[in-house]
Amino acid sequence: MRTLRDIDVKGKKVLVRVDFNVPLENGRVVDDFRIRAVLPTIEYLRKQKAKVILLTHLGRPNGKKVEELRVNPIAEKLSEFFSVEKLDDCVNVEIKENDSVVLLENVQFHAGEKEKSPEFIKALTGLADVFVLEAFGQAHRDYASITLPGACAGLLMEKEIKNLSEVLNNPKHPLVVVVGGAKISTKIKMIKSFLEKADDLILGGALANTVIAAKGLSIGKSVSEKSMEEEVKKLELTNTKLHIPFDVVVATDVSAPARIAPVGRTEADEMILDIGPDTISLYKDVIKSASMIIWNGPMGVIESEKFVKGSDQIALAIAESEGFSVVGGGESIILLEKLGIKDKINHISTGGGAMLNFLAGEKLPGVEALK
Ligand code: ADP
Ligand code: MG
Description:
alpha/beta, 17 strands, 32% helix, binds adenosine-5'-diphosphate, binds magnesium ion
């Protein structure tokens, strides 16, 4: 794999594809984790007197200019760290020779990004002398800026690949994998893969509802994916490694009074919103014994104080565990931040879907392009 450290960047123009697809509120960046993760690379390049040109996508403009998806809030955030010049497009622009870091406009304003059009690739490669991929969060996408010919891995990309390869190829046992969150469809490949490889596979969140339903137990009006039930039934649901919640917190809606129920005793007008206390306690015991832990996705509706307890307890158990811990996923990282335990996790991945695909053993177009 080509890496930034192998390349002479002194005085050169360097295009860095980053993943600054960060959450915004009222035109301001509310979580800068993905931005901070790339600062060491930017500093490294600036020390070498390279001209740094940053390129990202933001939201889903689908090949059109969308005013609300301009990257100006990101430029504002970046200017807390260095002088930034934000340009109004990402191709056919003039790059000045000065000390400012350039931030190009949203790459997905151009249809050529997703279509990988040769003209668009040419326009991008015309911008710089060296191409660096730092957008691990997009590495599972076969897009123009993610697969630029001759690109090298930036410092963040290198760290992601090193740590996640360790988990994939050299797991320490007992290996405990905790998967929660919204949709089982986006995580089923990883679940399948770790049902074989892990010693314990712990499920929670809305995606566990689909598994509970597939087992023939009632989930009331819980959030689940009906269309995934047949596929879920094909999993070895009786495997003793597979842990699903056996008590749950239910309510008729998020603002209604909640009660604890054995799984399967959810009434038709109720929904499962968190894992219950006995499940928390068993999950914590399993996590305590781990030598390696992977966690993606919360155990319940974390947006409500009433249903965040299961996720908080699991996050704290992972932080306290002596095993090597890897965490990924937007909401999971927000929980770590809230609890102030980010520094107790061995590797926090900037990739959600990219991490899941990588850990499921799939080849990522962005990673392949670096070889
Ligand atoms: P991550 O970003 O960490 O990968 P996801 O995006 O997959 O996590 O899922 C996070 C979302 O899952 C949260 O918004 C949370 O409200 C939702 N969720 C978790 N458990 C439930 C549940 N039981 N019912 C409805 N939504 C849930
Ligand atoms: Mg998410």
